[in-house]
User: Which sequence fits this backbone?
C-alpha cells in the first residue's frame, strides 16, 4: 500500500517541497509513495518579476512555470483548501467548479500562502487595487494604458487629474518596485499621448512609517527614495490612507487626491483558511510549528511559508520573514523532513540566513544588499538583480525565455497595446455585456 503525501499550495514553499520529495524518493520510492499537490493554479508565479511583467519588460507567460512541466512525478489537483479532518486523515478541497472533494493523507504539508493585508479604511475593499497576482499585474498595466487613452478624449481638468494620478500605498519591496516600474513604463509611453503629456502625470507613494524598505540598509533605502523623487514621484512618509472613493483618495494629513487608481501593497497576512483548520496559531494568525516545521500535536503535518511562523535559529529563533527565498528553503527542508519520516534520509532543522536583497527601480537602477555587508546601487545593482532572478527561475526553458525577453526589450520601446479584453470575448448577441466578471479579474 502506498503512502499518500498531500502538499497544499503551489507557491514557492509547496513547489519546493514537492520537488525535494521527488528528488529524495527517487525512482525506487515512486511506487511506495504517492505525491499530490493541491494548487489553485496550474503554474508557479515567480513573484519577484511581477513588476516587470506589469510594466511590459517581460512577457507575463515567461514569469510563470507550469507545475506539470517541472513536477513530473507529482499528481496535480486544482483546487483550494477548505478544511482538515485529522481523525479521518483527509483534507477537504473545492475544485475550480466549486465541487467539494476529499483527499486522504498519511503526511500533509501546508503551504497555502498569504493574501493582501487590508485595514479598515473606508472604501478600500470597493475601490483599492491589489498587486499580488499575475491577474493584478496584467490588469494594472492595461488600466494605466487605458487611463492615458481616456485622457486624450477629455478636456475637464479634474477628470484629467483623476485619470493621470496614481497612488501606491505601502513602501515595502512590492510597492516600491511596482511603482518604479509602472511609472517608468508610463513615462516612456507619454510621448505618444499629447494631451496627457501636456497635462502631466502624478505618481505618489504613501508609507505609514518613517522610512521605506525597512528590511534593508537605511542608506540604500534613502538612495531609492532619492531616485524616485528625481523622477517627480511624490513620496509621503509618516502618512496613511484615510479613505478612498471611486475618484479620490484622502490622506491622514487631510489632503484629498483626485485619482481613480489606488494600489494597495501594505503587506500580507496568512491565507484566511488557516483560521478554519483547528491548528495552533500565533498572534498574527500563522500556524505554530517547530524548527523542523512540524505542527504541534500532529507529527504527520508540516506547515511553512507565509502561513506559518517558522522559527529561524540564524535569526535568534524569530519567525522567518515572508519572502520567496525563505519559502524556497523552507520547502526544501520540509520536503526532506517528510521524506525522512518515510525512511528516506534524515530530518533537519530549518536554518537559513538571507543571501541578500534586491530592489529594482526601473531605468537600469536598483539597490542591492548582499550578505549583509556588500551594498550596491545604480546600474551594477540592477544587472546583479536581473542575473540573480534569472538564476532562480525554475526550468531552463523559462530562464532562456526571460533572458531573451530582457535582451530584446533593451533597444526597443515597450508595447502600449491595451489588451484588457483578453479572456472576455464579446457575446454573440451584441446587446449583452461582454463579460459578467469584475475587470480586475482580467
Assistant:
Amino acid at each position: 500500500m502506498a503512502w499518500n503525501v498531500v502538499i497544499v499550495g503551489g507557491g514557492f514553499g509547496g513547489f519546493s517541497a514537492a520537488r525535494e520529495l521527488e528528488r529524495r524518493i527517487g525512482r525506487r520510492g515512486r511506487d511506495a509513495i504517492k505525491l499530490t499537490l493541491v494548487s489553485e493554479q496550474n503554474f508557479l508565479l515567480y513573484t519577484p518579476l511581477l513588476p516587470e511583467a506589469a510594466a511590459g519588460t517581460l512577457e507575463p507567460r515567461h514569469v510563470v512555470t507550469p507545475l506539470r512541466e517541472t513536477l513530473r512525478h507529482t499528481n496535480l489537483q486544482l483546487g483550494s483548501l477548505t478544511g482538515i479532518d485529522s481523525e479521518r486523515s483527509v483534507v477537504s478541497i473545492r475544485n475550480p467548479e466549486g465541487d467539494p472533494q476529499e483527499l486522504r493523507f498519511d503526511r500533509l504539508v501546508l503551504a497555502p500562502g498569504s493574501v493582501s493585508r487590508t485595514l479598515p479604511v473606508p472604501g478600500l475593499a470597493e475601490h483599492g487595487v491589489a498587486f499580488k497576482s499575475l491577474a493584478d499585474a496584467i490588469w494594472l498595466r492595461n488600466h494605466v494604458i487605458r487611463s492615458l487613452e481616456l485622457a486624450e478624449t477629455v478636456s475637464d481638468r479634474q477628470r484629467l487629474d483623476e485619470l493621470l494620478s496614481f497612488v501606491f500605498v505601502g513602501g515595502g519591496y512590492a510597492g516600491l518596485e511596482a511603482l518604479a516600474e509602472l511609472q517608468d513604463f508610463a513615462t516612456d509611453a507619454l510621448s505618444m499621448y499629447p494631451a496627457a503629456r501636456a497635462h502631466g502625470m502624478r505618481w505618489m507613494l504613501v508609507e505609514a512609517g518613517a522610512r521605506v524598505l525597512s528590511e534593508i540598509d537605511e542608506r540604500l533605502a534613502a538612495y531609492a527614495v532619492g531616485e524616485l523623487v528625481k523622477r517627480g514621484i511624490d513620496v509621503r512618509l509618516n502618512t496613511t490612507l484615510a479613505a478612498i472613493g471611486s475618484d479620490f483618495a484622502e490622506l491622514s494629513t487631510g489632503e484629498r487626491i483626485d485619482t481613480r487608481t489606488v494600489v494597495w501593497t501594505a503587506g500580507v497576512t496568512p491565507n484566511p483558511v488557516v483560521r478554519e483548520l483547528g491548528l495552533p496559531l500565533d498572534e498574527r494568525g500563522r500556524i505554530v510549528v517547530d524548527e523542523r516545521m512540524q505542527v504541534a500535536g500532529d507529527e504527520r503535518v508540516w506547515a511553512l511559508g507565509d502561513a506559518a511562523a517558522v522559527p529561524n535559529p540564524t535569526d535568534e529563533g524569530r519567525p522567518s520573514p515572508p519572502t520567496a527565498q525563505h519559502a524556497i528553503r523552507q520547502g526544501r527542508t520540509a520536503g526532506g523532513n517528510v521524506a525522512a519520516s518515510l525512511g528516506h534520509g534524515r530530518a533537519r532543522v530549518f536554518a537559513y540566513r538571507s543571501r541578500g536583497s534586491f530592489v529594482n527601480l526601473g531605468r537600469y537602477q536598483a539597490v542591492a544588499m548582499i550578505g549583509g555587508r556588500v551594498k550596491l546601487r545604480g546600474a551594477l545593482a540592477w544587472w546583479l538583480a536581473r542575473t540573480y532572478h534569472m538564476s532562480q527561475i525554475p526550468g531552463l526553458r523559462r530562464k532562456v525565455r526571460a533572458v531573451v525577453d530582457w535582451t530584446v526589450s533593451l533597444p526597443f520601446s515597450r508595447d502600449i497595446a491595451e489588451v484588457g479584453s483578453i479572456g472576455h470575448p464579446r457575446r454573440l448577441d451584441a446587446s449583452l455585456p461582454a463579460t459578467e466578471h469584475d475587470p480586475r479579474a482580467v
